[in-house]
Design goal:
The complex is a heterodimer of chains A (535) and B (448).
Chain A (H helix, E strand, L loop, with lengths): L1 H19 L3 H8 L2 E3 L24 H10 L5 E6 L2 H6 L22 E2 L4 H6 L2 H15 L3 E6 L1 H6 L3 H12 L2 E5 L10 H14 L13 E7 L6 H11 L2 E7 L4 H6 L5 E4 L2 H15 L3 E3 L5 H15 L2 H29 L3 E5 L4 H11 L3 E6 L5 H5 L33 H10 L19 E3 L4 H11 L3 E4 L1 H9 L4 E3 L11 H17 L9 H4 L7
Parallel strand pairs in A: 2-3, 2-4, 4-5, 6-7, 6-8, 8-9, 10-11, 10-13, 11-12, 13-14
Antiparallel strand pairs in A: 1-12
Helix pairs in contact in A: 1-2, 3-9, 6-8, 9-12, 13-14, 14-20
Chain B lengths: L7 E2 L6 H9 L5 E6 L2 H15 L6 E2 L4 H6 L2 H15 L3 E6 L1 H6 L3 H11 L7 E5 L8 H16 L9 E4 L5 H13 L4 E3 L25 H6 L5 E5 L9 H9 L3 E4 L5 H15 L5 H21 L3 E6 L1 H13 L3 E7 L4 H10 L8 E3 L4 H11 L3 E4 L4 H7 L3 E3 L17 H23 L8
Parallel strand pairs in B: 2-3, 2-4, 4-5, 6-7, 6-8, 8-9, 10-11, 10-13, 11-12, 13-14
The chains are: A alpha/beta (535), B alpha/beta (448).
């Protein structure tokens, strides 16, 4: 198709001009992170070290571990061992929502830290940490205490795992730790892995559910930002599933412990939680299915694939009923928004899964994705999990231990090998697999990994999207450039964006971005009108 | 750290390098680079943006585990080169973090080596500032940076008629107002740092990577020749005073005042400027004071005897407390995440006329503030967004003021200083209390 070839060529030129503007060494490195779909070689260099001095949007290991995965556990207190800042800056900043569960406890509004002082750095902070854990137990009495380390802890050699063990023995409450010092790895991504390991080693399998049902599932990689989970769970329940646990939105530590007894893990955010999903598979032969509840068609597809996994006629019938009912409810409004938004162009730069998930929703609305990229993804998030076998373990992955489990002795998996083989064949590409974002992208679209500030500016100026979807660190830049934005981390206080209802909310937010009356006033009248007699 | 606890629950301060990011932002054509792991710069950008709703670019040396063990010199050098290449700043602040302070990187030495190898970088004023996150808070980092700027850049010379004004960490609207005041007195003032445009800019025709505005480099250099310096730092230790440093280095007379929040402190400020300028207070500001008095008479019927818990940065809280006392609200609990000897003694002076002495909490957290506020029985909270949990718990209104305000818009445009600022605060305070009372009425309400 000549038009797509033209687009490929145009975007290649744009990419090359960005690369040429860098000093040679930087340009060479960045060139492997900027790819045009359809140009042939679409290998995306990802999870590489950020270049110092380039303004990246990436966070650190602590942000991924405590900030993303462990932070949303509502009835545990996250005690941050370190100076005050990291705890403060991660204090509910991801808008994870939670309602108190059976224990009535919810500590998400709390920010607890050892607040290390100079003396702790010099003489060691273990005693202070021990005392802090006692205080948390005494003052808040949570269901668990999770200790996360920030940068200095690893350097001064505080043994937080030993302190946690001692404290657990003394206090009779679950205490465990995560060595997620910020300097580890290249982004928040390594922190996800550290958190998954901590959960597997300390929590998972330590409790049994009171009862099980044939359709127990865990939702993996869903953090209930803006209430996203609360759009998903009712749909699943209406169909007949029971959500045994969520990793980790609105999660109780007890639910996480009981999770191995589910029949299926459905996986939203592949990047952050695939480690745990894989370990569940190895340890309990509990398989995972890649789903996406962002987007109308995608939600329907995900529900259908879940039903196909269970191979249950009743479940399949109810799935179709629910989908039909929901579609009926949202159809006319969706048509309205489609009319308002069709053909509008979007850039998506977010996360390690969202830039893929939201493409579907944009397409539901007739919008075109001209650029998509991840902040902290790995190659498999772009190119699919088949690249994993061919990838050598880079030196960077040494910072986190890859735990490999055997099937736990005495554990009875829900399905036999044969059953799982059959299900796997029926759900090829999504059961224990993920095809990655690139496969979905249109010819000529740009794929950019670890987009930095400079590139954002050039790309927005050249491509002039109608909406730029990203996070708070770049949204004000693009807004200053006259392009509307929408945060896909915190949703700018809006959301939830999941499920059928969430699609409408997102559509409304896209509409307000494109049609805000403010744009009419951008040029002052005295600049618009020619002076008298001059026309 | 609050009460008998060694741990901190819901802190009332941020870490030291964040203050450096704010202060350098007020210097024209400047950038700041945090020497540490990249999470620091990401978290602080995120946080500063959430209050000011502006782009905030902060570079990082992005240290890895290798550099954490062997030192971050190479990463820092590369970081400096890249940020200069991309942003072409005239001033580059380099603030340390807990990571690089713990490993003991000598930033001065590393930069010295870099400038030897890359002479072109000498065009840029590179200003290292030590901001260990495990000591003090963001307000200290702010003052550290002002002191570093002055010690690095100020030059002596024949005494001129310029004025240095070190406002501390106030809002962009405050800085704009202070400029008007100095202009009104016919003074040629240099405000250091000047965040009035750089952290509260408009939509402009063409986007600038480093926003326009800020104190020009040349103006910072000239501070050594000024007629005098004013500094709003009454609650800050002298060793963190840029005005005192100029006095020691270049004999520039220095006057340290409380931030002019409320009528008492504004009177002190206007008096000081008037005396120094040798001119009466301009009519324009005298009228503002008259209107403020008129408003205080109107408002006292709703305010008298109300009790407040007020919290935030030491210098800012000192001003807010004095303002509350000025308008008849009892600052029953006064709290800061920092606050030393100077903070306490100034507060005691400001509250000497109150029947009930306030409970003053220093180096405290919201856990402790909540207990004190509940025990004291307050009618409202005054401070940052971070008090919203306590306000809900105690079921009292929260009047947002200070940094950060991330659950409302307009924090960067709030005016606190001068008579105009006292007026704005008074209206907000009174309406907060009236709305709280009206919301509680079960039978509706009409005009007042």
């Amino acid at each position: 198709m000549p038009s797509s070839e033209k687009k490929i060529e145009k975007h290649r030129q744009l990419r090359d001009s960005i690369i040429d503007s860098y000093p040679a060494k930087v340009g060479k490195r960045r060139s492997r992170h900027l790819v045009v779909k359809g140009e042939g070689d679409e290998q995306v260099e990802a999870n590489a070290k950020t270049i110092p001095g380039i303004i990246t949007t990436r966070g650190c290991a602590f942000a991924g571990c405590k900030g993303v995965v462990l932070g949303p556990i509502k009835d545990a207190v996250n005690l941050v061992h370190g100076p005050v800042g990291c705890s403060y800056y991660s204090w509910l900043t991801r808008r994870n929502f939670a309602r108190p569960g059976e224990s009535g406890k919810n500590y998400l509004q709390y920010c607890v830290t050892t607040d290390m002082q100079e003396g702790d750095i010099v003489f060691g902070g273990e005693k202070k940490l021990m005392q802090a854990i006692r205080e948390v137990k005494e003052a808040l009495d949570p269901e668990a205490i999770i200790v996360s380390a920030t940068c200095p802890v690893g350097l001064i050699g505080d043994d937080i795992a030993s302190v946690a063990r001692e404290a657990e023995a003394e206090l009779g409450v679950k205490v465990f730790s995560a060595n997620c010092e910020g300097y580890k790895g290249v982004s928040q991504s390594v922190g996800h892995h550290i958190a998954c390991n901590a959960l597997m080693e300390n929590v998972v399998g330590s409790e049994e559910p009171e009862e099980t049902t044939p359709f127990d599932v865990n939702i993996f990689g869903e953090y209930n930002i803006g209430g996203d989970l609360w759009n998903i769970t009712p749909l699943l329940e209406k169909i007949g599933y029971r959500v045994l646990s969520t990793y980790t939105g609105d999660a109780s530590i007890h639910d996480l412990a009981r999770a191995p007894r589910a029949k299926l893990n459905v996986l939203m955010c592949h990047r952050s939680i695939n480690y745990a999903a894989q370990m569940f598979w190895d340890r309990y032969q509990l398989p995972w299915l890649k789903v996406n509840y962002v987007g109308v068609d995608e939600t329907a597809r995900s529900l259908r694939e879940m039903a196909r996994f269970f191979e249950d006629d009743g479940l399949m019938a109810r799935t179709e009923e629910v989908i039909a009912e929901e579609l009926e409810r949202v159809r006319s409004q969706l048509d309205h928004y489609r009319g308002r938004l069709a053909g509008r162009r979007v850039m998506l730069f977010v996360g390690g899964s969202r830039a893929h998930h939201f493409q579907h929703l944009c397409e539901d609305l007739g919008m075109e994705v001209v650029l998509a990229g991840y902040e902290f993804a790995h190659r498999d998030d772009y190119e699919g999990r088949q690249v994993l076998s061919g990838m050598s373990r880079s030196s960077l992955s040494k910072v986190v231990q890859d735990i490999s489990y055997e099937l736990e002795s005495g554990f009875e998996p829900a399905f036999s090998e044969e059953e799982l083989g059959r299900k796997g064949a029926a759900l090829e590409g999504s059961l224990l697999d993920y095809e990655g974002m690139n496969a979905h992208m249109k010819e000529g679209a740009l794929i950019v990994d670890d987009l930095n500030h400079h590139e954002t500016e050039v790309l927005v100026r050249e491509l002039r999207p109608d909406v730029f979807c990203s996070g708070i660190k770049d949204k004000y830049v693009v807004e200053k450039m006259g392009v509307p934005s929408r945060q896909l981390h915190s949703y700018d206080y809006s959301g939830p964006y999941t499920g059928f209802e969430g699609a409408l909310t997102f559509a409304r937010d896209m509409e307000m971005a494109v049609y805000t009356p403010t744009t009419r006033f951008m040029a002052p009248p005295w600049k618009k009108e020619a002076p008298d007699g001059d026309a | 750290m609050a009460g008998n606890f060694v741990s901190t629950t819901n802190p009332c301060r941020m870490c030291r390098p964040l203050g450096a990011c704010l202060a350098f932002r007020g210097i024209e054509d400047s950038m700041v680079l945090l020497h540490g792991s990249q999470g620091c710069s990401t978290y602080m950008r995120r946080y500063i943006s959430s209050h000011f709703r502006e782009p905030v670019d902060i570079a990082s040396s992005s240290l890895s585990e290798k550099s954490a063990v062997y030192g971050g010199a190479e990463s820092l050098k590369r970081g400096v080169k890249n940020v200069v290449d991309r942003y072409s700043p005239r001033v580059l602040g380099i603030a340390t973090t807990c990571l690089t302070e713990t490993i003991g990187d000598d930033v001065e030495l590393i930069i010295g080596e870099l400038l030897r190898d890359e002479p072109a970088l000498r065009e840029v004023e590179i200003i290292p500032v030590s901001t260990p996150s495990y000591s003090g808070g963001h307000y200290n980092g702010f003052h550290d940076s002002c002191v570093a700027l002055i010690s690095r850049l100020a030059q002596g010379g024949p005494r001129g008629d310029g004025v240095n004004l070190f406002p501390g960490f106030l809002s962009p609207a405050d800085i704009r107002h202070l400029k008007d005041v100095m202009d009104g007195f016919g003074l040629s003032a240099v405000i250091i740092p000047d965040i009035s445009e750089t952290l509260d800019g408009g939509i402009v025709d063409s986007y600038r990577r480093i926003p326009a505005g800020g104190t020009p480099l040349e103006a910072v250099r000239r501070t050594g020749t000024a007629a005098f310096s004013l500094e709003f730092s009454a609650a800050t230790p002298g060793r963190q005073s840029a005005a005192l440093l100029l006095k020691e280095s270049f004999s520039v007379p220095a006057e340290r005042l409380p931030a002019p929040i409320g009528i008492s402190y504004s009177d002190r400020f206007f008096q000081a400027v008037s005396r120094r300028a040798g001119r009466p207070v301009p009519e324009h500001f005298a009228r503002q004071r008259e209107r403020l008095l008129d408003a205080m008479v109107d408002a006292h019927k709703y305010l008298s005897g109300k009790r407040a818990a007020v919290y935030g940065d030491p210098d800012f809280v000192l001003g807010l407390s004095s303002f509350l006392a000025d308008v008849g609200v009892v600052p029953a609990v006064i709290a800061s995440g920092g606050g030393g000897r100077e903070f306490i003694s100034e507060l005691e002076l400001a509250c000497a006329h109150l029947e009930d002495p306030p409970e003053i909490l220093t180096y405290t957290d919201f856990g402790e503030i909540a207990r004190a506020a509940a025990a004291s029985g307050v009618d409202l909270l005054v401070g940052t967004s971070k008090g919203n949990h306590i306000a809900r718990e105690l079921q009292v209104p929260l009047m947002r003021a200070g940094f950060p305000i991330h659950d409302r818009i307009g924090g960067q445009r709030m005016l606190h200083v001068g008579y105009a600022g006292a007026m704005a605060l008074l209206d907000l305070l009174t309406n907060t209390i009236i709305a709280g009372a009206q919301d509680e009425l079960g039978y509706g309400y009409s005009y007042m």
